[in-house]
Specification:
- Residues 229-357 form the GGDEF domain.
- Keywords: Nucleotidyltransferase, Transferase.
- Pfam families: GAF, GGDEF.
- InterPro entries: Diguanylate_Cyclase, GAF, GAF-like_dom_sf, GGDEF_dom, Nucleotide_cyclase, Rev_trsase/Diguanyl_cyclase.
- This protein is an alpha+beta fold.
- The protein has two domains: 7-168, GAF domain (Beta-Lactamase), CATH 3.30.450.40; 210-354, 2-Layer Sandwich (Alpha-Beta Plaits), CATH 3.30.70.
- The chain is 48% helix and 19% strand.
- The protein has ten helices and eleven strands.
- It has helices at residues 7-18, 28-41, 75-79, 102-105, 141-200, 210-227, 241-248, 250-267, 291-306, 330-346, and strands at residues 45-51, 55-62, 68-70, 87-89, 112-119, 125-133, 232-238, 273-278, 281-286, 317-323, 352-354.
- The longest helix is centred in the middle third of the chain and has 60 residues, at 141-200.
- It is rod-shaped, with a radius of gyration of 45 Å.
- Bound molecules: guanosine-5'-triphosphate.
- Guanosine-5'-triphosphate binds next to strand 7, helix 7 and helix 8.
């Protein structure tokens, strides 16, 4: 028998393992082969036996319950030593190699054995398709040829199995790569979106910044023209903010701006747009809004700024209101809101003013 440490035997074991067949569940195609072998050779037992390092393992079997036996008892381990021909043992009682074999002296009581090696293209014999009987006998030439043909079929099945396994691996790798690419793409889109958000957001108050405001106002203005539904613009400017900064410091000033932003937001509807226009100046776009409604919102904002808790001293704001009806451009609307806000400053601050263009 081949020494398992022998280099050829090592290669044979490697070849066998590469098929990943050992200890796999029963499969119809292999079961059919042993049924045919048993039928053609007219034996009660037929097996597909694979010779592993220290055992023979049966991929398919009829007439035998065992799943495997130690390699030392395996007739097939002898058969694979001469891989080109069927090894036949007509009567184990007359064969010195097997007469004391536990499979002969005990269960299943082998008297006759014939095994056709499973010869792979690389020249390795992985095991056999074998038939066994409990009485001495001989195969006819046609039976012996049929057994060899069945053994070749099993080798084909094994080769197909390996190709399928490799294909599956390639497909899995491709799917994985595809998923990775998709994930990367999604991440890039998220990053792009975040970046875009960052360029449109005021870092101190998290409101829309001037850039975002300009775009939003253009869109809303165009929409208001299309839908013939007016919009209003509020310009909210904190009063005496320089004095607040000077008295309590820039950090306290920053905090006050954040509070003011929240106070304005708290009075806006979901579809209004609140932006930090610059410094201590905020804008609110009120789509689909009549002038009287805008004045109500502006008053509420003024009140909510006056009622901010947590400031070093109470804050107020002057608010200018502009109305889009009869106005030719978003730029003009901003000018009007700005003028209205200056009117509020001039009028004593902490108030809401409108600037209606002369008709
Ligand atoms: N802490 C802080 N202060 C800012 C910021 N942006 C602008 N300011 C300050 O806001 C102040 C605005 O001052 P002014 O334009 O004189 O206006 P004001 O003091 O509010 O006076 P009125 O508007 O006339 O009531 C300046 O001192 C700016 O330095 C900011 O992001 N943080």
């Amino acid at each position: 028998m081949l020494d398992p440490s022998h280099s050829e035997e090592k290669l044979r074991i490697e070849d066998l393992r590469s098929f990943k067949i050992l200890d796999t569940p029963a499969e119809q195609a292999y079961d059919d082969v042993v049924k045919l072998a048993s039928y053609i050779c007219d034996t009660p037992i037929a097996l597909i036996s694979l010779i592993d390092e220290d055992r023979q393992w049966f991929k398919a079997r009829v007439g035998l319950n065992a799943m495997e036996t130690p390699r030392g008892q395996a007739f097939c381990a002898h058969a694979i030593l001469d891989p080109d021909r069927v090894m036949e043992v007509p009567d184990t009682q007359q064969d010195a190699r097997f007469v004391d074999n536990p499979l002969v002296t005990g269960d299943p009581g082998i008297r006759f054995y014939a095994g056709a090696p499973l010869l792979t293209p690389s020249g390795a014999a992985l095991g056999t398709v074998c038939v066994i009987d409990r009485v001495p006998r001989k195969l006819t030439e046609r039976q012996s040829e049929a057994l060899q043909a069945l053994s070749r079929q099993v080798v084909q099945l094994l080769a197909l199995r390996r190709v399928n396994a490799e294909l599956e691996l390639v497909t899995k790798a491709q799917t994985l790569r595809h998923q990775q690419l998709e994930n990367q793409q999604r991440r890039i889109e998220e990053l792009n979106h975040d970046l875009q958000e960052q360029t449109l957001t005021d870092p101190l108050t998290a409101l829309k910044n001037r850039r975002a405001f300009d775009t939003l106002l253009s869109h809303e203005f165009a929409r208001s023209l299309r839908s013939k539904s007016p919009l209003c613009l509020l310009m909210v400017d904190a009063d005496h903010f320089k004095a607040y900064n000077d008295a309590f410091g820039h950090v306290a000033g920053d905090q006050a701006l954040m509070f003011i932003a929240l106070a304005i937001k708290s009075q806006a509807r979901a579809y209004d747009h609140v932006a930090r226009y610059g410094g201590e100046e905020f804008c609110v776009i009120l789509p689909d809004t009549q002038l009287n409604e805008a004045l109500v919102v502006a008053e509420r904002i003024r009140d909510s700024i006056k009622s901010i808790h947590g400031l070093r001293r109470p804050m107020s704001a002057s608010i200018g209101v502009a109305y889009s009806e009869g106005i030719s451009s978003p730029k003009r609307l901003v000018e009007l809101a700005d003028r209205a806000m200056y009117l509020a400053k001039q009028g004593g601050r902490d108030r809401v003013e409108i600037f209606l263009p002369p008709t």
